[in-house]
Design goal:
This is CipC-like antibiotic response protein. With about 110 residues, the chain is mainly alpha-helical. It is about 75% helix and about 0% strand. It has helices spanning about 5-10, 20-25, 25-50, 55-75, 85-105. The two termini are about 25 Å apart.
């Protein structure tokens, strides 16, 4: 299990974050969870609609999914204290790393 998947499991296992989560959950943890979610959704889309051959299009799709996942976690988990812009930037980078690990294509 990679860092992103661990972060995803940690974030999704908590319905309402408590004060201890505010101290523990940095924008990097949120970003890791969002990157994992982005790749999970991207892989689901590929399974349903077929693979995307254009790596640059894939990069844009993954970046959009990662940003949306950060927003989703912020809204559903009430994690307003996290800097969303930092988390979105880090999530995009983490998602690109996961894509590279999965496909071997380097951005």
């Amino acid at each position: 299990m990679n860092y992103q998947e661990q972060a995803y499991r940690e974030i999704t296992s908590v319905d309402v974050p408590e004060e201890k989560h505010k101290a523990e959950w940095t924008h990097q943890i949120i970003a890791g969870a969002a990157a994992f979610e982005a790749m999970r959704l991207y892989n689901k889309k590929q399974a349903e609609e077929g693979p995307i051959d254009d790596h640059h299009l894939a990069k844009e799709i993954i970046a959009g999914l990662a940003g949306a996942s950060v927003d989703h976690f912020a809204e559903t988990k009430g994690i307003d204290w996290v800097d969303r812009q930092k988390a979105k930037h880090a999530a995009k980078e983490d998602a690109e790393k996961l894509y590279t690990q999965q496909t071997g294509y380097e951005f």
